[in-house]
Amino acid sequence: MKKVFTLILSLLISLAQAEEKATLSGHVRDAVTGETLIGATVYAPEVKIGATTDLNGFYSLSLPKGKYQLQVSFIGYETKTIEIQTSGNSTLDVKLTSSSTTLTEVTVTDQAKAANVEDMKMSSEVLSIKTIKEIPAFMGEVDVLKAIQALPGVQSGGEGTTGYFVRGGSADQNLVLLDGATVYSPSHLMGFFSVFNADVIKEAELYKGGVPAQYGGRSASLLDITQRNGDNEKLHGNGGLGLIASRLSLEGPIQKGKSSFLVAGRRTYADVFTRMSKREDLKNSVMYFYDLNGRLNFRLGEKDVVTLSGYYGDDVLKNKEQLSWNWGNRTATANWKHSFSDKLIADISALYSDFNYTLAVNSTGSSDLEWKARINDETLKADFTYLANSRYSFKIGGASIYHTIHPGNISITGSDVETSFDLETQRALESSAYLSSTIKVNDEFTIDAGLRYSMFQNIGGTVNRYQNSTNEPLSSTEYDAGEFHGTQGGFESRLSMRHMLGTSSSIKMSYNRMMQYLQLASNSTTGTPLDIYFPASENIKPQIADQIALGYFKNFNDNSYEFSAEVYYKYMQNQIDFKDNANLILNEHLENEVLSGDGQAYGLELMLKKTQGKFTGWISYTLSHTERTIEGINDGKAYLPTQDRPHAINIVSSYQVKPRLQFGAAWTYSSGAPISLPTSSYEFDGVVVPVYDEKNGYRLPDSHRLDVSFTLDGKKKPGRKWEYSWNFSIYNLYARQNPFSIQVRQNADNPRQTEAVQTSLVGTMVPAITLNFKF
């Protein structure tokens, strides 16, 4: 063991003390807006050394002293070649100009185009906002969450919804971040739209595996969404007018070249038209949502950048006489990036997340009821990156999240009654620390290894201990406010390896362990606004997922085509489900409704992507299987959860018909979800009672759908300061009635017979038109 340690130490020292080199670092930005470019490539062909810009648009290269023709490139931008002479550490900021020609005419270096082969990442996909906007959208509303459902390994939670499953995980096992802050309920209108306004999004990155060590908290996936900085050079705006919603954003410099702002708003307006209706039930009904986004960016010299951003959104559903239902998210991010030197960078954030809902029922002449619940997080995190040289770098950091969960409060008021019922507020502290290192052993082989430790502690409150047959606790322990208890935690290993097979292909391997301390109490497929999270405790162990993946990546035809094939296996511990007929609403003994066990998931994901030319897009196929084994469910035998969909096919394409006309199409196919159906029935007191045998022993019919869109740009005129385009889309072109659920009920004509009734949320063709504009 001592010899192994000495060998590793010697390797690290030799890497850190390589031949005398000079460090070249800086940022790559858009020449017009000043926006940093993520994933741009800086390459020195003389020594075949390159680097890719990080989430801050920052790069760092360690080069032997000498003269180089530095190539800086990014897809969709003109490649810039800069002659440099390195004699000591220096800074070089580069601005790239967006290409005004078609993508076929853009010159991009092989290094940039082969990034998917050379990058350490696997089981991840980056979708730029340009790609997202090219995918046909429901009602013309560009949607990040629906876009990622077209990726291999991702399954839709249901027709028309934004809920999704990743590699056999459930919907609550996906971590969704907006500028680093958790978004607990990322959908509007019961799941038909996401909360993310495409006009302010820079890009979205989905990790299905190989998750970096700095991230944790969910066991299935990470969706990291970044908002744009505003333009720090000039003031301008854009927006859109659609059939269901309108949006407007404005951005510009606060101090030219140094600071900027971005503000945006979006609102649906179906309620405006229902108020004009002659039908009283529609006239008195209100249903809409709105979003507000903001971001401030300040460059305080060459070494410091401060960013402030936030999101505020609500859904409102009202019947003026009886019902009022509001739910929404709020997030806030304060981020400071500081360069101590060309090699050491700090990234420090303070974050706030909140999700809440209020349901009010007004009974004329009787009692009124109001039901409230919420969850909020306060987070501090710090990450430090050290770039030793072109072959060795490491990261270290940590985070602390203070969770506050208000599971529910009900108040009833009336002329002769006034009472309330409160579920106990739950508080917890989730802490983590990590260390990761990237080692480039040689030009072909690179290792990225990390170790994360996470810990979860309940704070105050009451702990009940149960006997499974009853909700009456056997014993209880009350803890003082601020008293820590129920500490759980563990190490989470992360490992990625990449071996180049020539210049256009590679094989990659990854392993990661993920631990999850919060889970959703829900009986629905993808969750509803009435669901609430509950924490790990003495009665609830953290969920654990161990995943290993192996992939082959190959580019063809001068990197115009990208092919990938990945296989994965995931073993899951402490997976939760609920007892039959469990009461999940306002249940102070919710923990006693929970059952837990193990699960596994495995699959094959194939993807072929065309990235250049007038015709671009991808085709993907997923073959997968997932199962759970939980004592007390299905007689203790393995069963298929609702996210088991063996086959999935996605075809997404975009074609530039003419310089002003673009066509888009997306076809999706998926196996039906597992469901439970009765195998027999009996009659009791005149009522037919169904008898169920195996849990989820049947499947819904397969789903498939074709969406199309056309985008027509307006003619550009010299001197005109505004532009516009029309987007025409048709969702579900051939009006497929995809099943959302099947219910078994008594036949109205013959109550002694039962019948299965299929429900489709969107069973018809849905056309839409949107006018987009810039000024």
UniProtKB/TrEMBL annotation:
Membrane topology: Multi-pass membrane protein
Taxonomic placement: Bacteria, Pseudomonadati, Bacteroidota, Flavobacteriia, Flavobacteriales
UniProt name for this protein: Outer membrane receptor protein
Signal peptide: 1-18
Span of domain TonB-dependent receptor plug: 129-220
Domain of life of the native organism: Bacteria
InterPro entries (UniProt xref): Beta-barrel_TonB_sf (IPR036942), CarboxyPept-like_regulatory (IPR008969), Plug_dom (IPR012910), Plug_dom_sf (IPR037066), TonB-dep_rcpt-like (IPR039426)
Family under the similarity heading: Belongs to the TonB-dependent receptor family.
GO cellular component: a single term: cell outer membrane
Any one of the GO BP annotations: siderophore transmembrane transport
Entry keywords, A to Z: Cell outer membrane, Membrane, Receptor, Signal, Transmembrane, Transmembrane beta strand, Transport
GO molecular function, one term: siderophore uptake transmembrane transporter activity
